[in-house]
Amino acid sequence: AQSVTQLGSHVSVSEGALVLLRCNYSSSVPPYLFWYVQYPNQGLQLLLKYTTGATLVKGINGFEAEFKKSETSFHLTKPSAHMSDAAEYFCAVTPASGYSTLTFGKGTMLLVSP
Amino acid sequence: DAGVIQSPRHEVTEMGQEVTLRCKPISGHNSLFWYRQTMMRGLELLIYFNNNVPIDDSGMPEDRFSAKMPNASFSTLKIQPSEPRDSAVYFCASFGGGSDNEQFFGPGTRLTVL
Hints:
The complex is a heterodimer of chains A (about 110) and B (about 110).
Chain A: E1 2-7, E2 10-14, E3 19-27, E4 31-38, E5 44-50, E6 56-58, E7 64-68, E8 73-78, E9 87-95, E10 103-104, E11 108-113
Parallel strand pairs in A: 2-11
Antiparallel strand pairs in A: 1-3, 3-8, 4-5, 4-9, 6-7, 7-8, 9-10, 9-11
Chain B: E1 5-7, E2 10-13, E3 19-24, E4 31-38, E5 42-50, E6 53-56, E7 65-71, E8 74-79, E9 88-95, E10 104-105, E11 109-113
Parallel strand pairs in B: 2-11
Antiparallel strand pairs in B: 1-3, 3-8, 4-5, 4-9, 5-6, 7-8, 9-10, 9-11
């Protein structure tokens, strides 16, 4: 079974500041990991994903995340926040082998102030 | 491709009425998922289909909820009778069988039961 913990239901940053959204997972098998973003009144959009290979993955809109197996983490970062980054962010996990559903975290709302 | 299509986008109904939500997955995708999103419980998987067959409906909250997928291009989620606690955003997502288990989400249906 898998689970995802996102630390902090809300994160506030100033425009231009570093964005760090935390995600820790639990999985009994090697995982695939995802970050989705949800803008107001919209569906979820894939931001980036880790499957195999390089542990530092780059996504859209300048976001990146690093898979750290020893820490069971997949934190999302962006060097400089933009007002348009204000949204809710979801981390998700699925087993790397075979087909399975995604297990989502509770989400973190990112607030960006001018 | 138009992506996952859901209708209606908004539904307001009165307690006790039947509600039907509709979803058209991405053409060629063989798996379809229904999720419910609320402030209290976050994103919950209700049911998913593979090749039009329900695989796991353990997330369906109670017998008032039912889902069907009569063909590869259409699915419905029905609530009968509806109750105020069913008010939520309902998302449909589809998956094309890729090795990474990435799901593509529709824009959601916002349901309000008065």
